[in-house]
Amino acid sequence: MNILDLVRDNIKALKPYASARDEYQQSHGNMVFLDANENPFNNGLNRYPDPKQNLLKLELSKIKQVAPQNILLGNGSDEVLDLIMRTFCEPNKNKVITLPPTYGMYQVLANINALEVVEVPLTASFQPQVSKILKVNNAKVLFLCSPNNPTGNGLNLLDIERLLRAFQGIVVLDEAYIDFSEQESWLHRLEEFPNLIITQTFSKAFGLAGIRLGICYASEDIVSTLNKIKPPYNVNTLTQTAALKRLKNLTEIASEIEVIKSEKALLTSTLKTIQFISNVYPSQANFLLVKMDDAQMRYKQLIEKDIVVRNITTQFGCENCLRLTVGTPEENQNLLNTLKDLQ
Questions:
Q1: Which DSSP string do the residues of 152-165 spell out, in sequence order?
Q2: Buried b / exposed e across 4-40, counting CB within 10 Å, b at 16+?
Q3: How does DSSP classify residue 314?
Q4: Is residue 197 over pLDDT 90?
Q5: Domain range holding 291?
């Protein structure tokens, strides 16, 4: 499979916009910038951000053992997902495949880009129906979320591999929650599958949801093509600075992850003892899918007690389910005490 054959013709022919800071190689820190029509008076933010996010990519490269040229950064993972659709899918012509219940923005972004969405629901155990997926015609992009949101489970590794080898398009593996999982990231096999795009985020384990920073790992061909259509300064200076600072505290991040895992185990065992809860699904993420007698009623009762959870009872396969994010030990205990007191 030649990946560039999957790219839209107009994108292949596109001459990308070159920002002022794309047109030179900085040789030292004392250069005089008179190229970008910026306010020259230094306040720390008067200059445009690095459009290539070089320092941040170098740091990620060392941590993830992935070459910088295989990394693309976006204004949240949603921008990355949108870039993928705009690069590979012709509006009103191509299809994308989603596996409900799953992350809802795949559907929204596809609708924005005028793409048909083919839904191939997960099985009762929330695993892909591989044979049905491979029977879909004219699909350019397949979205796999593992660990999956909102179910929390990891997808079967052999199923993922079979899809990567057999699907004649781009496979986007959303690993937003991989840092909480017992499964290993597919980053170590990135070079093996030219049609694989892995997305990760700073919003979950890294604890930086407020800076909106998404990560894409893919072949150099894919990354260079996505770079052609991304906005030139899509990741601002404050975001790059905050991300670099956080990456210097990997020990702290690891400690927080361990607390979340421990608290998740405690939540799981205690929730199972509450009379109106019928199932707490196994989770490799930082949340739990919990089935109960009446999710809508329990959701409203929790809101009245100033506790906000996610009511997903309308999603496929999630009738009467709430999604509970693992909070701090104090927040989790408050949740448990409140649930025990509900009638």
A1: -PPPPHHHHHHHHH
A2: eebbbeebeeeeeeeeebeeeeeeeeeeeeeeeeeee
A3: T
A4: yes
A5: 251-341
**Which of 204, 232, 248 is the last residue before a domain boundary?**
248
In a domain, 243, yes or no: yes
The burial of 266, by beta-carbon neighbours within 10 Å (0-12 exposed, 13-18 middle, 19 or more buried), is given as middle
Cα angle value 55/13/172 (rounded, 5°): 55
Residues 171 and 238 in one domain: yes
In a domain, 214, yes or no: yes
Asked if 153 contacts 147 with a C-beta cutoff of 8 angstroms, the reply is yes
Q: Do 335 and 232 share a structural domain?
A: no
- In tens, the pLDDT along 38-74 reads 999 999 999 999 999 999 999 999 999 999 999 999 9
Helix (H) or strand (E) holding 74: strand 71-74
Asked whether the bond before 232 is cis by omega within 30 degrees of 0, the reply is no
- pLDDT value of position 26: 63
State residue 25's pLDDT score: 67
Q: What is the pLDDT of residue 20?
A: 74
pLDDT of residue 94: 96
153: left (phi over 0), alpha (psi -120 to 50) or beta: beta
Q: Give residue 118's identity as a one-letter amino acid code.
A: V
Token representation of residue 130: 């591989």
* Number of domains comprising the chain: 2
Residue 202 lies in a domain: yes
Question: What is the pTM for the complete model shown?
Answer: 0.96
pLDDT > 90? residue 28: no
For residues 197 and 194, what is the distance between their CA atoms, to the nearest angstrom? 8
